[in-house]
Design goal:
Elements lengths: L1 E5 L6 E6 L2 E4 L9 H5 L2 H12 L22 E5 L3 H6 L9 E5 L4 E2 L5 E3 L6 E2 L2 E7 L15 E8 L2 E2 H5 L6 H4 L5 E2 L4 E3 L10 E6 L2 E7 L7 H9 L9 E3 L21 E6 L3 E9 L2
InterPro entries: FAH (IPR051121), Fumarylacetoacetase-like_C (IPR011234), Fumarylacetoacetase_C_sf (IPR036663)
Keywords: Hydrolase, Metal-binding
Protein name: Fumarylacetoacetate hydrolase family protein
Length: 283
């Protein structure tokens, strides 16, 4: 099953995507947030759709897509989770996952504009696989971790490198600017993806390929990351875990390259769709 949320910012409605197109499931009566996931919403929606899908209206072509989930309780990110990315940034290979948070106010739709932050000179791109938690997870063993996963999304973990690395403190300052977490187009349930630890992900800037990697290069794979994080905090239904980026970020280039007003960033993950952001200046 593929879930979407569509409509104006702050007014999104729930929908599903099938081979026949996108359909409005507002009549189901729930949005795709924490309560939906913790009450077995995916199964309930599938059962409802089997009976009522024929009566659901199509989503008009060109309608804006929002984040496929409501604002989660937290966005947790894993840094340097691909060996090639660690090497390009001259970082040591982590012995344990590097964990940081991204503000939930950075969440936007997959094709919304990227707003380059005020006073930014070093805004960078990062294509990432997101894992969405389906039920509360605390002290979960790795062998059981996938039982707690609802599905997956495409994410561009935008980063302002000066804010992140040159201003002291933790990385969160460079990760949390408004529009820095475009998510989607869809939430794809885990049954639709064969091996999530072996899918291609890519990103272009103005049509030039910058990142072209595979989750087979993970240092810490999805079950390990879910289990690891659950040792330190409860993962709540709808929580977002962004699992790191492969090589090809602007920070790692020589000379370094960063996003400018007017740049077009496109990205995708096999089975999870594509997204497109246009960079605009802060006003």
């Amino acid at each position: 099953m593929k879930l979407i949320r569509f409509g104006l910012p702050g007014e999104e409605k729930p929908g599903v995507v099938t081979a026949a197109g996108m359909f409005d499931v507002s009549a189901f009566g729930e949005d795709f947030g924490e309560r939906f996931f913790e009450t077995n919403g995916l199964d309930r929606l599938a059962q409802w759709w089997a009976v009522n899908g024929k009566d659901c209206a199509p989503v008009p072509e060109g309608t804006r897509l929002g984040s496929p989930i409501q604002r989660p309780s937290k966005i947790i990110c894993i840094g340097l989770n691909y060996a090639d990315h660690a090497r390009e940034t001259n970082a040591q290979i982590p012995q344990e996952p590097i964990v940081f948070f991204k503000s939930t106010s950075s969440l936007v739709g997959p094709n919304d504009n990227l707003v380059i932050p005020k006073n930014s000179q070093k805004t960078d791109w990062e294509v990432e696989l997101v894992v969405v938690i389906g039920k509360k997870a605390s002290h979960v063993e790795e062998k059981d971790a996938m039982d707690y996963v609802a599905g997956y999304c495409l994410h561009n973990d935008y980063s302002e490198r000066a804010f992140q690395l040159e201003r002291g403190g933790q990385w969160v300052k460079g990760k949390s600017c408004d529009t820095f977490a475009p998510l989607g187009p869809w939430l794809v349930t885990k049954d639709e993806i064969g091996d999530i630890n072996n899918v291609r992900l890519w990103l272009t800037v103005n049509g030039k390929m910058m990142q072209n990697g595979s989750t087979s290069d993970f240092i810490f794979n999805v079950p390990y990351v879910v289990s690891y994080l659950s040792q330190f905090m409860s993962l709540l239904p709808g929580d977002v875990i962004s699992t790191g980026t492969p090589a090809g970020v602007g920070l790692g280039m020589n000379p370094q390259v960063f996003i400018k007003e007017g740049d077009v960033i496109e990205l995708g993950i096999d089975g999870l769709g594509t997204s497109r952001q246009v960079a605009v200046a802060y006003k």
